[in-house]
Write a structure and sequence with these properties.
Elements lengths: L1 H9 L2 H8 L1 H9 L1 H5 L3 H5 L1 H10 L4 H19 L6 H11 L3 E3 L6 H13 L5 E5 L2 H17 L4 E4 L5 H9 L2 E5 H12 L14 E5 L1 H7 L5 E6 L4 H11 L7 E4 L4 E4 L1 H13 L14 H16 L6 E4 L2 E4 L17 H9 L7 E7 L1 H5 L4 E6 L6 H8 L3 E3 L7 E4 L3 E3 L2 H17 L4 E5 L2 H13 L5 E3 L7 H6 L7 E5 L14 H9 L6 H23 L3 E5 L6 H8 L8 E9 L3 H6 L4 H9 L6 E2 L1 H37 L1
Parallel strand pairs: 1-12, 1-13, 2-4, 2-5, 3-4, 5-12, 14-20, 15-20, 16-18, 16-19, 17-18, 19-20
Antiparallel strand pairs: 6-11, 7-8, 9-10, 15-21
Helix pairs in contact: 3-7, 3-8, 6-7, 7-9, 7-10, 8-9, 9-10, 14-16, 14-17, 16-17, 20-21, 23-24
Length: about 650
């Protein structure tokens, strides 16, 4: 109670910290008029001037106010965008090696230019880390207008670059790339025999975009460079055939930890089957000679029971491609280790690639901890603030929005089973779409997005489906998801990084409709017409209530739910969000089955009936917190193991 009272009088620690930066913001604003009157050449000449000052012993903090004012003016002249004061605060936070939590649509890409420019002044290089190649290319192209104007070089690291181009990209003042590319380049450099063959320079400063996705969600999987071992395809196929005879009574599965083990009866049955297949030495499965067979049997069980097609992976062009459980994107080139990938290939009847042995590996935690200064930005980090501080020593700073948030977040609605829930969702979507409100529906797997698509087809609702299958059209679909009455189904909000603008995205429309048209008065006229149309559509959508975000179930992590919600109500737009749940959802089925709450629901809910309420949303949040804590423990263990290896790597 006293805490709440103190907070209401003095503000939270975060509010006080943000307020303390206002002095720096005022200092930046004081330079604005002096910088505005400079010619383009004079503005660009500020870069060598700053370099001289830093070489003469001044600190980056000393030149920060003027440097930020120069970047703001350069952005106005090249991009037509002026940094807001809250974006300047974001830039200061990044420069200080902290995490800037900024809501979706607040312009994080532009915020990064401030800290990038300032930290590139001393010539040691700045890395900007993005979640996928599309964003690395897009952000590098888009923001290089500012950097090039001010005389800085920009490099971008994408797959399949040759070594010369990679070295040149790392030698640039600012280098954009994905976490995987940076990490693999580090591992490859460590396998080189001569220093001159290395592509990376010593680490200096990195800004990680979508920092929660890269440093937390992906941190459970280490990066591994491997080489081939002997081909054992026949063994996988034989063991897979054996597993087909093992039934549900023969094993116990623990969905919380995603483990599976044979019961005593199951083990006996497996021994008989393996003997018939000629794979068992002696009659006891757990004899030393059968170690390899036990391993393959466990992996085949895991592949057949615990790894589901269209949820954990898809089959594309005769290959098994893993789907990232957090972003819903295909992870091309990634393979499960310890023979699990081969077991899934045997299960699906596609060509079995030979197993690999590890030559070099590192976790993202240890890779990013090598940077003397590391900062990050995202829309959702507050729920993981403790982990960011414990593992990376980074504070999370929540930055206020430029305009107040007008989105209405409604309580969750609860149904007895999936079919009731999806029928209700389809009706709600139809209702909102017909009154001209765009709807973004978030699902947790491809399978669920396709099931919902069938329900919407029955209701004759036109819609786009965005999941790992149609990953090429991702940015295009997301860009037009704000058009009046548009309905978009997205798996785990694929398409982060592309803004949903009410009324549709002007730039994408110009690209699509006028791509071939030559510059001139005709094109200008056509652009003006598109801009006018979008303005009218935007007004219609605002009147209909803005973007309606509908979650079809709660995710294991509150952050993913918040990311979905955050797509609506950007930059002061109106918006609405609501989640639909049922007892068959994974989160409730695995983590909430034995609760009073689940038993009560089963008894009291009629088919097709819905309930909602604050206490219900609270109960769900408690389940999510439990899962988050468990996942954190798993990541902590990975990093503790890797710390030992890291000591050897440093030697």
């Amino acid at each position: 109670m006293f805490g709440d009272l103190a907070k209401s009088i003095f503000g939270s620690a975060n509010d006080r910290y943000v307020k303390s930066m206002q002095k720096v913001v005022d200092a930046v604003n004081a330079f604005e008029t002096a910088v505005e009157v400079l010619s383009d050449e004079e503005l660009a000449a500020k870069t060598p001037y700053f370099k001289e000052r830093v070489a003469g012993g001044e600190l980056l903090d000393d030149i920060l106010p003027e440097a930020f004012a120069v970047v703001r003016e350069a952005a106005k002249r090249t991009l037509g965008q002026r940094h807001y004061d809250v974006q300047l605060i974001g830039g200061i936070v990044l420069h200080r090696g902290e995490i800037a939590e900024m809501r979706t649509g607040e312009g994080k890409t532009l915020v990064a230019t401030l800290a990038c420019y300032l930290n590139a002044i001393d010539g040691k290089g700045v890395h900007v880390v993005t979640v996928n190649d599309y964003l690395a290319r897009r952000d590098a192209e888009w923001m290089s207008q500012v950097y090039n104007f001010l005389g800085l070089k920009v490099g971008v690291i994408v797959p399949n670059l040759d070594e010369g181009k990679r070295r040149a990209a790392y030698a640039a003042d600012i280098t954009y790339g994905t976490n995987n590319e940076f990490g693999f380049d580090y591992l490859r450099d460590n396998m080189k025999h001569e220093r001159s063959k290395m592509v990376q320079r010593p680490f200096n400063f990195a800004i990680v975009d979508e920092v929660d996705s890269i440093l937390i969600d992906e941190a459970r999987t280490p990066l591994i460079i491997s080489g081939p071992t002997d081909d054992k395809s026949d063994l996988y196929l034989t063991v897979n055939a054996v597993v087909q005879f093992i039934t549900e009574e023969d094993y116990e599965k623990d969905e919380k930890s995603r483990n599976i083990s044979l019961t005593e009866d199951g083990t006996e049955k497996a021994e008989r089957l393996l003997e018939e297949a000629g794979l068992l030495v002696g009659s006891n499965l757990y004899d030393y000679e059968n170690t390899q067979v036990v391993h393959h049997l466990n992996q085949a069980l895991m592949a057949n029971v615990m790894r589901k097609r269209d949820t954990d992976y898809i089959v594309k062009d005769g290959k098994i491609i893993i789907i990232d459980e957090f972003t819903g994107r295909m992870m091309e080139g990634r393979r499960w280790s310890n023979g699990l990938h081969q077991a899934v290939e045997a299960k699906e009847g596609v060509q079995i690639e030979p197993e690999n042995q590890t030559m070099a590996s590192i976790t993202f935690q240890n890779y990013f901890r090598m940077y003397p200064k590391l900062s990050g930005m995202t829309g959702t980090a507050e729920t993981e603030a403790a982990e960011f501080f414990e593992i990376y020593k980074m504070n999370v700073v929540t930055i206020p929005t430029n305009k107040p948030v007008l989105r209405i977040d409604e309580n969750d609605e609860f149904y007895k089973n999936t079919l009731d829930k999806f029928a209700a969702i389809a009706k709600t979507v139809k209702e909102h779409s017909e009154k001209g409100q765009p709807v973004l529906v978030g699902t947790v797997s491809i399978e669920k997005s396709e099931l919902l698509s069938d329900f919407l087809n029955k209701e004759n609702v036109e819609h786009s489906v965005l999941n790992a299958r149609f990953h090429e059209q991702e940015a295009l679909i997301v860009a037009q998801a704000g058009a009046p009455g548009a309905v978009t189904i997205a798996t785990n909000m694929a398409g982060r990084g592309t803004d949903i603008q009410l009324g549709g995205n002007i730039d994408f429309r110009i690209e699509a409709e006028l791509g071939e048209m030559e510059a001139g008065p005709e094109r200008d006229k056509a652009i003006a017409k598109i801009e006018e149309e979008v303005r009218a559509l935007r007004a219609r959508v605002r009147e209909a209530g803005g973007l309606f975000v509908l979650g079809t179930e709660r995710h294991e992590s509150r952050r993913i739910d918040n990311q979905l919600r955050g797509r609506s109500g950007r930059q002061g737009d109106p918006g609405l969000s609501r989640f639909y749940l049922c007892l068959e959802d994974d989160l409730l089925r695995i983590f909430g089955t034995e609760t009073m709450f689940a038993k009560m629901m089963n008894k009291n809910l009629e088919d097709g009936e819905a309930i909602g309420g604050k206490w219900l949303s609270k109960a769900i949040e408690t389940a999510q917190k439990k899962v988050e804590a468990r996942n954190y423990e798993a990541r902590k263990q990975v990093v503790e193991y890797d710390d030992v290896m890291n000591d050897q790597r440093k030697v």
